[in-house]
Amino acid sequence: MQKLQLWLLFLAGLSGAVAQTDKPAARIQPRPPYPSPGRELQLQCDVPGDPGPLEFLWTREGSDVPLQINPDRILTLPPVGKNETGTYICTATSAWGRSVAKYSLEMIDLLRKVFVFPRASNDSYVILKPKPEQPLQSFTVCLRSYTDLPRPYALFSYATKAYDNEILLFKSSSGEYRLYVGGEFVTFRVPETRMDWEHVCAGWESATGIAELWVNGKPLPRKGLRRGYSVSAEAVIILGQEQDSSGSGFDLYNSFTGEMTDVYMWDHVLYNMKSIMWGGSFSRYIFGWNNLHYELVGDVFLKRRLLF
């Protein structure tokens, strides 16, 4: 009987040792998921288990000075800039012991770089990962492209479950652009120019339905569509193809061939387009060229821009 009690005590101690070392894993979640310059960033340290952590210690790799130490799992960073880049460490202390998680904040600056689309295809494009945090009542999309295509092609495609052309910037001929919002479109006629880089900005606001297009820093006569409409935030955003369904349905003959750079999107209408055209410093956007999170699919390449 005494031997049985000793064996049970040994098993209990072994079980306790296993439980003590089997700590829940910590994980840091950024909000928003893809930070942009000039916007506040929150890092949330999540640790499963009951009871939860009693204390969260936030530090930055390379520094011994704590950023924050209290029961609050959220660390709020100031508007993001180059000074905020680095690796942030959360050490969560609970009855289970200590759990550690790390998060690296990077700025993906594509200055003087371009996406090259070398051939027509129905399987090559760029996915832009950031999304609006809420439905859009207005927006501005800007980009710069360089091509010798004589046929129609898609530049920017924002598709949702409701509309594959929720937002679409489409060049239907050498002298014509179409801007789609909520499945409807307006046409802007533009003067034909010699083959060169072309900078385009498209804007729209729900309150009036006014849509506008700027080409190489010059505004075209404004049009109207979809007054009172709200653009869904749940979208697939693609460069170089037109989506006929969310995330798919690409047509070889509407694909873009050429080079593209300086891609930006804001959740409001901008008016100083000349500053944008000449490469000013921008912030508070949904996504932008000086911190762009993207995925290349198929034959699309990131290359240095050729200067001439």
TrEMBL record:
CDD domains assigned: PTX (cd00152)
Signal peptide range in chain numbering: 1-19
Origin superkingdom: Eukaryota
GO CC annotations on file: extracellular space
GO BP annotations, alphabetical order: innate immune response
Subcellular localization(s) per the UniProt record: Secreted
Residue ranges of every copy of the Ig-like domain listed in the record: 24-106
Disulfide pattern: C142-C201
Main location: secreted
GO molecular function: complement component C1q complex binding; metal ion binding
Keywords: Calcium, Disulfide bond, Metal-binding, Secreted, Signal
The UniProt record lists the keyword Manganese: no
Pfam families, per the entry: Ig_3, Pentaxin
Domain Pentraxin (PTX): 111-308
Family: Belongs to the pentraxin family.
Protein name in UniProt: Serum amyloid P-component-like
Source organism of this protein record: Terrapene triunguis (Three-toed box turtle)
